[in-house]
Amino acid sequence: MNPNLDRLQPYPFQRLQVLFADLQAAGGMPTPIALAIGEPRHPMPAFVQPVLEQAMSGFNRYPTTRGEPALRETIARWLQGRFRLAHVDAERQVLPVNGTREALFALSQAVVTPGANAGVLMPNPFYQIYEGAALLSGAEPLFYNLEPANGYRPRLDTIADAIWDRVQLLYVCNPGNPAGAVMSEDELGSLIQRAERHDFVIAADECYSEIHHPDAKPPAGLLGAAERIGNDAFSRCIVFHSLSKRSNLPGLRSGFVAGDAGIIERFALYRTYHGCTLPGPVQAVSAAAWGDEAHVRENRRLYAEKFAAVVPRLASVLDLNIPDAGFYLWPRVPGGDDEAFARRLKREINVTVLPGRYLSRPTADGDPGAGHVRMALVAEPAACVEAAERIRTLLERD
Q1: From CA 140, how far away is CA 105, in angstroms rounded?
Q2: Distance of CA 375 to the CA centre of its chain
Q3: Does the pLDDT value for residue 25 go beyond 70?
Q4: What band does 235 get if pLDDT is binned at 50, 70 and 90?
Q5: If you ran DSSP here, which 8-state letter would residue 7 be given?
Q6: Beta partners for residue 120, in sequence order
Q7: What is the DSSP letter of 198?
Q8: What is each CA distance from 64 to 57, 68, 100, 200, in whole angstroms?
Q9: How many domains does the chain divide into?
């Protein structure tokens, strides 16, 4: 067996089950409300079912690794419009994938040269796939902490050159999960220039880029930053986008990677052997989704309404802010013990949140997830408001 499998840590939701294992459901408890998992619950777009039904015959053919030209061309047009790009080559710079979770993991296996000095740098807190990808590619996970003093944005200029010289792959989550902070285009441009100096690949997880306030400027993207500094070939840049959050289609398992044509070519070779392809009907639905913005605007409106209803109810009892983007709250908890706080909410008011330390790792500079909890505002608006009312009432008794 691959010995690196023993280095994988339990997934956050496995740890949550263990944390709650000894809690007994008391009689008269209110209906459970789950705020722990970031699974979108808004209605899927109305066009999904008719498009899928029309494309059903596509299940009788093997799909190609690179996907249908029509899908890649739709994605290229979306990227050009969304990030103000002069041109995206649908043939060489776009690759459909089975959701970004799979692709974020697989990219590390394709681009990392394993060895004692190999490093993969990632945010802390982070999406645990980054860490598992690094370990199973034969590299050491390296972390940069996201702290409230910098608005939970990375301070990459504080990392020593000796660390940068080890880095082969850098994961950036922009907008961030869990804090929802957004890096500026200037910050992304500086990062690309650093990648050129130290010769590493940037993997930008941009899956929350379309979940922002309806009146706010859309978050910047890595490809746009690259083009604006003269890197119109997107050298060393790969972005990841998904229909899970943007279009409320987590079960479709559909996304794409785009960027550096040389990396895309090698990654496509890897995926040919890996055997991951999107079925034809899934590609048809995906093309329809990337080609439509009306349902995305409605999605943003629903999240904005929930933030507007929930945050004022919690602001008097929790240290929190509305994030720049995404659908999470990342409050600091009273007393600083995130596990104890999560247990208390589950035990006393039947609300489930995720302890922040389950999304982070201790470092020499501390554990940036400890003392926080993540709340995903994915449930129906009434359920989110009810959860906020329960939390406020409970904490006001202290």
Answers
A1: 14
A2: 15
A3: no
A4: very high
A5: G
A6: 141, 169
A7: H
A8: 16, 7, 18, 29
A9: 2
Q: Which of 231, 154, 228, 73 is nearest to 220 (CA)?
A: 228
* 373 assigned to some structural domain: yes
Task: Please write the tens of the pLDDT for every residue from 102-148.
Answer: 999 999 999 999 988 999 999 999 999 999 999 999 999 999 999 99
CA 82 vs CA 69, 223, 249: distances in Å: 20, 11, 20
- Residue that terminates a domain, selected from 249, 268, 292: 292
Q: Give the domain range for residue 355.
A: 3-43+295-396
β-pair type (237-242, 255-259): antiparallel
Is pLDDT above 70 for 26? no
Per residue in 295-337, pLDDT (tens digit) is 999 999 999 999 999 999 999 999 999 999 999 999 999 999 9
Same-domain pairing of 27 and 164: no
Is 55 inside a domain boundary? Answer: no
Among 259, 292, 325, where does a domain finish?
292
CATH at residue 155: 3.40.640.10
Does residue 75 sit within a domain? yes
Residue 227: predicted pLDDT: 98
Q: What is the mean pLDDT of residues 348-366?
A: 96
Q: How far apart are CA 372 and CA 358, in angstroms?
A: 10
Could you tell me which residues are beta bridge partners of residue 237? 202
Q: What are the C-alpha distances in Å from 182 to residues 98, 112, 186, 248, 326?
A: 25, 27, 12, 21, 10
Token pair for 121: 């740098």
Q: Residue 238: left (phi > 0), alpha (psi -120 to 50), or beta? A: beta
Is residue 367 assigned to a domain?
yes
